[in-house]
Amino acid sequence: MVKKTKVYVGMSGGVDSSLSAALLVEQGYDVTGVYMKNWTMDLPGVKCPWADDLADAKRVAVQLGIDFKVFDFQKEYKQKVVDYMIDEYKKGRTPNPDIMCNQEVKFKLFLDAALEDGADLIATGHYARVSNSETEMSASVSKEHLQPEFSKAPGPLMDAARSRSEEIGAGSSVHGYKGVLLRAVDDNKDQTYFLYRVTGEAMAKTLFPIGEFTKPQVRKMAAERGLTTAIKKDSQGICFVGQVGIRDFLSMYVKQQSGKIIESKSKKVLGHHDGAIFYTLGQRHGLELGGGLPYYVVGKDMDKNEVYVTTDLNNDNLWSDEIHLDEVHWINQAPADGEYQIRIRHRAPLIKAFLKVSDNSAVLRFDNPERATANGQSVVIYDNEVCLGGGVVN
Amino acid sequence: MSTEQIYLDYAAATPIDERVIAVMQTYFTDDFYNPSSPYMPAVKVRRAFEDAKQTLANLIGAKSGAVIMTAGATESINLAFNWVTGHVVVPNIEHHAVLRCASALSHTIVSADSRGYVSAEVIKEAIRPDTQLVSVALANNELGTIQPIRAIAEIIKNEREQRLISGNLTPIFLHCDASQGAGQIDINVARLGVDMMTINAGKIYGPKQVGLLWADSRVQLAPQIVGGGQERGMRSGTENVAGTIGFAKALELVIEHRTFESERLAKLRDDLQRTLTSAFSDAVVSGYEKHRLASYLHISFPGIDAERLIFILENRSVLVASGSACAANKGTRSHVLTAIGLAPELADGSIRITLGHQSNTENVKKAGKILIEEINNEYARIKR
User: Fold this and answer.
1) Which residues face B87 on adjacent strands?
2) Among A residues 51-110, those touching chain B with beta carbons less than 8 Å apart
3) ipTM field
4) How many structural domains does chain A have?
């Protein structure tokens, strides 16, 4: 008997990763579910918030008859994701912890720990796809991934899953090839924005079983399989911040300090805030300056603890025809200068931009000015379906 | 509860007895009045409410003192601690409500032994001149171990006497959380010798969110919920008439059938324990077998992941409790199992089976068979 390919699937207790695990089992992989215990604020006297998610993940694993493990990444997660996020905010920047989580935890720590534990591949429930340019040549050696029961699976959805398995399961088991990250089929759910700092090597070892499906399809398929998480609500916001919200979360780490809110043109003091750290460029809400036209943040001075605002949507600071990126990361090789599409936040529409790449930085130019991006925010660069990488606004 | 389901977690929740629902019904609809209202229909409701409270007092053998109705045992426990300004003594296997109340005060946590038994001796040693409250559960909620409340009450009585002799006027009282066991063993406050007692309707086939705290007249309680001054000012808020009347009926019923039911459950439990321990020679039963509630079986299967087992059993319509919540996080492994020194691999492989009204020879046998089957499957999966 040929040994089945061993896949460790990250299971969060949500519907996406639950279905991912189910599909992998149907595709004939030897599947192990893994719950990643990341850092959460466990307050004394408060029911531990992640226990229900862990239980949901485990229940689905039991339902699927697969092994289930818990990988404890609390310490690393706290350092690499939480502390990073707090530091960035302290510098007046607007970081994205989900991007750090994927870069440092899911596609590094988890990948390494899974491989170390005997896995051939990892999988997650992200809405994204991987393609491997070497699949064609290696597909023939890897047909053993496909089990007989799998090929009996009916319907167009399963056909999609099957072709996907042939494409990726095959190539990625061969050493040395890099995976190409592609946008999800569901444009509304595509999560490649959060994935742009992963490596091609990691992608070659990764399966995204639901990347071919839309969210409604995922829910339907989960329900068809009787998965207990089929109707579970999607999680909202940053996981470790949970119910409290980013503002309250930061307040626990940063001393609140009152400062002035200043009209950017007239320099008139309009009111006061409790810390410039809590404000981000382009932000409209939370200024509590009373009625009238909405105010937008157009800048802040972290040293003076001042926030500058305007009601003028045409204010120069709110628009720019150029973005400078630092900490540039390419999933595979750096692209050539030229016209690409970019995304400035998760689910934002793709914008056409001209990319000029230098060593660790890049410049993006637009034909028409676009809404300005805040320092620390990530901009992700696409060549049509392919997510190339991106950088951090500076 | 569906007929094919085998519910074995009566220590977590009990279905309401139909006779209890029957007496509550009218207070939701026809007799909905606020017991504080002046007109006769409301006065009748007040009388029914007071009668139910009197019934509750009689059933626990309280000749004097105050019965304060609360929204469950957790609130009762908080009320029992709320007046304390000095030192408290509690065992390390108490319910979280007790431990958290104690941790907010000057406290000494005493250790139970490996059977989850708290000797009167360790309580005695922990009492200081400024100790105002000792709180010990009648039976431990994870293991079912019954505590020597009478002996502990003797210690408190002696301490009180000694203090008077030495001129120390600091009051000292014994609170007993009798949430577990109220339906199975004696809860007569006079016979137990306690000064305060908490019980809970939701564990004795009554409604959830209904509990009471009885306190001897010497205890100067301090309210934690203030307002209209109901319940002698100790617990404001419009009275839960239906809940209280249901509670009285539920307690009446369990006390009436207590001896018979305890013997019946003990036999079922012993059979199940024998079945499981002969099938798995390395299974470990925790708790004090000679002093254990009849409904309880806490059993560990080394190497088994109990949480996983619970989901497997759930798919076979058998519902049991995990001996160890949050098993994946070492920091939050059941404090009771840690306290009695149960090895981590036993703690993580432990389940709590608690029997009740709907348990019978047939379904407990069937559950035993399913347990053996599934535990064997799990051992096979682990070895693979």
Assistant:
1) B106, B131
2) 51, 54-55, 58-59, 61-63, 67-68, 70, 72
3) 0.84
4) 3
